[in-house]
Amino acid sequence: MSAVGGAISACASERDIERLPVERGEYHVPVLADEVVALLSAIDGGVVIDATLGGGGHSALLLAANPTIRVLGIDRDPEARATAAATLAPYAGRFCIAAATFAQIATVVRENDSWIDGAPVVGVLMDLGVSSHQLDEGSRGFSFRADAPLDMRMDPTTGLTAAEYIAQADLHDFTRLLRANGEDRFAFAIAKSVLAACPQTTDELSAAVERVVPMAARRKGHVATRVFQALRIAVNDEIGQLEAGLAGALQVLSTDGVLAVISYHSGEDRLVKSTFATWATGGCTCVHALGCVCGAVALATVDRASSQLATAAEIESNPRARSARLRVARKVAP
After folding, report:
1. Which of 32, 98, 212, 236 is the Cys-Cys partner for 189 at CB 3.0 to 4.6 Å?
2. What single DSSP character describes residue 223?
3. Which pLDDT tens digit goes with each residue over 183-203?
């Protein structure tokens, strides 16, 4: 498993932002934007942390909707930070951007204490997964749609590439990874084929999968979709990042602060749901009918039992929203 993160940079100054290379074109359309803006723009003053800044789409909408809030943006991807800097330029003085992962939220807040200047952290937004821009940028190796070096790192300056991860992977561990991401019937055969091929490019990885999955057994879509997803999750330690990020978000939020998490696959959503449930009960395992006798203290309330989905109209205009799930928790006083 790769090490993720590394040094944390404090928020870029406006002069630094002017020197950043700007990524031209649209990064991606922010998902569930109306719902996120309605939720977080209602907050009266303070700092909102956009823990997965991306191209700055959600942050720009929040800053436009509520002039009393400021945004601290976090992203490990230098291309994302550059694009967000250009997107948010009209709001100079009300945002800053830190080079870090969302697992490092608490450290980012501490390192940028002077910019926060005593303001409460009233909201945290986490929009998980890979962005449309990262998928479309063929050279990053996230997608089977273009042949490219097998990289998949969200921060291309640190950690193992997907090719390096495969080269040192154990067959049984890799099989378990594939099964955890939906490859059940052919997980062992795919793992064996991929490790034997030791692919260096996305086309070579796709070919290794195609060799062992019969045409009749292939699902709708590309045969290697779940293999690419599994590798991306492993290379970027996305589940470990999410666990640490959720804990960090709860730590930095002020009382009544809002945590909004958008997830895109079942593994992420299950973790968010179970974490929120644990916060809501304080970890109590007492028999419900007898009441709590263990002294557990709730850490948060959960807005609704089920996740919020995108509307049919949004899915039609932005197909990426089809798999999006929004869950919301609010920190309570200890």
Report:
1. 212
2. T
3. 888 999 999 999 999 999 999
